[in-house]
Amino acid sequence: MADALLFAPEIACLLAGLALFFCPVFEASYRTTWGLALFAALVITATCIWSLPLEGEPFAPGIYRVDFFSQLLKAVLALGFLLVVILSRTPQTLERSSWVEFPMFLLFSTLGMMMMISATELLTLYVSMELAAYPIYIAVALHRNQQLAGEGATKYMVQGMAASAISLYGMSFLFGVFGSTYFGDIALRFDAVSGQPIFWFGLLLALAGFLFKLSAFPFHFWAPDTYQSASHPLVTFIATASKVAAIALLCRLISLAMPFDAWDAQGPAIQSALMWMSIVAMTLGNLAALAQKDLKRLLGYSAVAHAGYTLIGVQTFSTLGLSAALFYALAYFAMSFICFLVVCVVGRDEDQVPIASMAGLYQRSPLLALTLLLGLFGLIGLPPTVGFTGKWFLFSAALERGQFYLVLVAAINSAVALYYYLLVIRQAYMEEPSSNAPLQVGPLLRATAVATMALTLIMGTFPDYFWDMAERAAAALVG
């Protein structure tokens, strides 16, 4: 019974997923399926919040760990699923015959991500990664425009499978070095093998699958194409929940190499590799975004840049850096979601969402214009949004390690990003709309927009509570 309680969020996801699986079997309408998915999302979110204080190992020792780190991030994933379900009330960009299956794919992917976060054994982690990935591969192919669907799904799946294979190859090196797939055994024997280059090589390869999900260099090529070609609600899920899971996994794997009693041996090598990945991701993402005309594609390159910002905290190999990375995961979740909320509403009936479609948004819907403004201000890193606070924590962690020039490069990249984000804001507030028809925003979407905007401002203005949670999560992870 105790094991079942520790596994409660995953059990809730599994049962809800099975219920959604039978909806198309019994030819349920999409309205019924959506209502069931919304109810399931609320139950799963409540279960995750209830499980925050729980700690333990529900299965054989060393395979699966439940602690504040895992449960906090599971709650964020559940919230992400809930928000995307709300946006999917009428998913016009999906193939009509696939509407009923869509919530099921999202839910099973959420289940896989939850299991990834708690996995403390390499094979369990790999199986969880695949469970999280394959429903998304299928869902990308469900776009109503078959040309877009085929291209986006093929690029995403092929590159994802390549990253997965590289990650599995790296795990085989770790098993060869340690003779075990358990994270606990790896941590205990770290000092004995930290001087062996093959360990650091294996760890770097094992990170490939997580860097792919984060769309970090050099596993970023899928992001702009998939963002542009996938349906709007699905891209929202990829840009929010998937990023949180990727950052969590990076932090868990990096924590295996802490504390660094043998830092002077090979530690600086992998730190340098991650630091250069961060620099290239920030620079490439921001420069490529300057030339984009499609808003979703622009946000795809923006995701690459923000993966680089996140790596600033990860590559410090410090508790402060992990705390900053986890805080930024929460921040990016909120900022990215409110941008994609606007994309989903404005592009409700369009396969593509060019930046020009935001023209005159303030006249058509002042609420959506304000939502977009706050989201983009957050992505830029301007106060009082959480983007500013999140970058402050990341830069502080890097400065603690003496990495002034890395922070300088990140600050320059933030200035570059200011240009292309302001182009979108200019369209929304200073250009005349092509249509004077007001945008219809339902009460549920309106409440969601207001709530997420408030979260973005509260996390930026009063970050203490959220920073404390990030610190507790990092402490549980390192411990």
Uncertain stretches of 5 or more adjacent residues: 260-266
Give the total of domains.
1
Query: What is the overall number of helices?
Result: 22
Fraction of residues in helix: over 70%
Alpha carbon gyration radius: 21 Å
Strand content: under 5%
Order of helices and strands: HHHHHHHHHHHHHHHHHHHHHH
State the separation between the terminal residues, measured CA to CA: 26 Å
Q: What is the makeup of the main sheet?
A: none
The SS-based structural class is mainly alpha
Mean pLDDT: 85
Q: Tell the overall outline.
A: globular
Describe the protein in words.
With 479 residues, this protein is mostly helical. The chain has one domain (2-478). Helices cover 76% and strands 0% of the residues. It is globular and about 70 Å long.
Task: Give a topology summary.
Layout: H1 2-6, H2 8-25, H3 30-50, H4 68-87, H5 102-118, H6 122-140, H7 146-178, H8 183-188, H9 190-193, H10 197-206, H11 208-214, H12 222-229, H13 232-255, H14 263-289, H15 295-314, H16 319-346, H17 361-364, H18 366-380, H19 386-400, H20 404-430, H21 443-461, H22 464-478
What are the defining features of this structure?
globular, 479 residues, mainly alpha
Short characterization:
The chain is mainly alpha-helical. Helices cover 76% and strands 0% of the residues.
